[in-house]
Write a sequence for this structure.
């Protein structure tokens, strides 16, 4: 009995310390509104599209710090990272693709294999009726928790790495795209012609909708996560190619390289890089 009491006390102390650290980290987040450098260029593969890219974000030193200081988006759940809410499916094809890859997971590589292959499956409706990945014990069903012998983190991510694939092949769309945000807008020119504007930018708190302001902590504006060895356009090369096409990415990479090579440093750097 004393050992149980000590363990419970220790756990509460750890949770309290984690919440305190997360609160301090949120205070270090930079404001949502600051000067950004944008570049627009025609899609080399589609005459009706124009890319609008946030060079401030794409040349920043953001990197995912899951398991390396990530504070999580919900209090007391730092080890979930951003997996607490589950992943909403972009469409039926997204769900079916992930199901196909999940079929190769085993009880040794997927902590919740029994639940995921059971009658309830991997999906559930949210409060608005939209389907997302099921949550088990408060987080995504595909998230292996600390202490699992097969390894902590997304089981689909681990599967991809084990098979020599890019994680974008096995994970839900929203998971591999974060924290890059792609949006579409039809723009009308003065001559009444139109083009599709494809914006590639930062998935900041606002990207989550009104609820984004309630997240305990969010990484894109946090200096804690702007510690990558490479800028985002390099570290997220596979994802950006998937989002833009190889030709579009090649133009983007050239613009980013020119931006970073300016003698006096780039105009409008990401403020989280400098802290």
């Amino acid at each position: 009995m004393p050992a149980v009491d000590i363990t419970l006390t220790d756990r509460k102390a750890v949770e309290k310390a984690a919440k305190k650290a997360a609160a301090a980290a949120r205070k270090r987040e930079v404001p949502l509104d600051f000067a950004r450098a944008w570049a627009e260029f025609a899609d080399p593969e589609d005459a009706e599209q124009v890319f609008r890219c946030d060079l401030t974000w794409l040349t920043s030193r953001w990197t995912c710090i899951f398991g390396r200081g990530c504070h999580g988006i919900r209090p007391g759940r730092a080890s979930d990272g951003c997996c607490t809410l589950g992943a909403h499916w972009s469409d039926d094809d997204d769900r079916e693709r992930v199901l196909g890859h999940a079929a190769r997971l085993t009880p040794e590589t997927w902590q919740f294999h029994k639940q995921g292959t059971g009658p309830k499956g991997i999906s559930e409706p949210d409060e608005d009726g939209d389907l997302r990945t099921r949550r088990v014990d408060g987080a995504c069903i595909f998230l292996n928790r600390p202490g699992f012998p097969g390894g902590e983190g997304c089981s689909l991510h681990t599967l991809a790495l084990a098979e020599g694939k890019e994680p974008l092949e096995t994970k839900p769309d929203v998971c591999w795209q974060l924290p890059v945000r792609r949006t579409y807008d039809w723009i009308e020119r003065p001559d009444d012609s139109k083009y599709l504007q494809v914006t590639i930018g930062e998935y900041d708190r606002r990207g989550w909708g009104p609820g984004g302001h309630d997240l305990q902590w969010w990484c894109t504006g946090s200096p804690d996560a702007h510690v990558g060895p490479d800028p985002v356009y390099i570290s997220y090369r596979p994802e950006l190619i998937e989002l833009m096409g190889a030709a579009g990415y090649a133009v983007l990479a050239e613009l980013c390289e020119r931006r970073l090579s300016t003698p006096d440093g780039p105009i409008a750097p990401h403020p989280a890089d400098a802290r």
The chain is about 30% helix and 15% strand. Residues 2-28 form the longest helix (27 residues). The mean pLDDT is 95. The radius of gyration is 20 Å.
